[in-house]
Amino acid sequence: MKRKSSIFFVVVLLMCACKQGQKSAVQKNNAAQNISLAAEDTALFRQVQQQTFQYFWNGAEPVSGMGRERIHTDNMYPDNDQTVVTSGGSGFGVMAILVGIERGFVGKEAGRKHLEKIVHFLETADRFHGAWPHWWNGETGKVVPFGKKDNGGDLVETSFMVQALLCVRQYYQNGNAEEKALAARVDKLWKEVEFDWYRNGKNVLYWHWSPTYAWEMNFPVHGYNECLIMYVLAASSPTHGVDAEVYHEGWAENGKINDVNKPDGIVANYQYKLQMKHQGDAWNGGPLFWAHYSYLGLDPHGLKDKYADYWKENTMQALINYQWCVDNPNKFKGYGADSWGLTSSYSVKGYAGHAPTTERDLGVISPTAALSSFPYTPQQSMAAMKHWYNDMKSKLWGPYGFYDAFSEQDNWYLPRYLAIDQGPVVVMMENYRSGLLWKLFMSCPEIKAGLKKLNFESPYLK
Fold it and tell me: What is the pTM of this model?
């Protein structure tokens, strides 16, 4: 998600030290810096953020305040599921609301009250050993099965929500009485998630547990994919933490995560090299959301462990994704330097995990891929945003920003949205510009302790 040299758009904010040789608190504890956008780009950047934010504001499910799983502006809903809300996507929305408050898209009090509504729902809705399900009915708080046996706790989606709640806690913990009360409520929710339960007695974390089917989903989570944040949170939990061995043996599979030796016949990753084997033998990188979801709060700047430099890994994944679309080996109409981005999204036939391989590239561009990659590929992301807005707005733009996906190859432009794709756009664009969510999340003392437990390096740990 970084490109070759355009990353150096970053403006390093140097602050004077109070004592000779001493770094300021901002320099010492925050890797993310403020970015100055070109004047002609600022208005469009803000408009895209603000319009996309509306998915979680005007488009929110009214009883719970949560983000709907999907919004179809053509009103063609499967199984009339307009009341279905999502835990992970709503976590992204919670972070987007903090952006909305900071950017003045909504008032401070209105933003806080909306967050209080969401927190009340999370306190009273179905939970399973502290973990929330993937879906609920937003009016009742009762679980809506994501699949036949997936009717219980979903630890990955829960982790996306917890990542957001910790940002809320840090944002409000030193505020007035109402703000401190909200911070305390989300802190309680975080501490009630039983990460240790989801080990199922082994040195790995399991994605699901059901009160009906127990562990029958049988999905131990190994890397590399979108789930790094779950392991970081599990190691960081002050109440239900897990040992470092769970990370090293489970997530990293005792080092197999670095097995990047390609079998014969696999095309090389251009000049860009991945450090880790992406799950599913995705030798050119998996769907691009893998470089987004865990890093909405977890700042990849300078983040390293013995397996990877995560800023480099995310940058390389984004650059491979970009270059694939520029080279366009499948010769799809509309691909190029100003229209790129393959990730999981709606597709011409249902839903698909688009990725840079001849088999998984279906001619479908998902705007969230490039827009959420702003921290890594600012020039390439800006070019795509300008093209889609200036040249294709009538086909791609609606009440909640750019539509989820489109295909010029198939003349397919569907006016539909997904929470998990809209949320990262708002958050990662803000992280690129100000580092807001990165600074909040990385300021958590538990996260610093958890990263140290796992032997990570980060500028926030110095």
Answer: 0.92
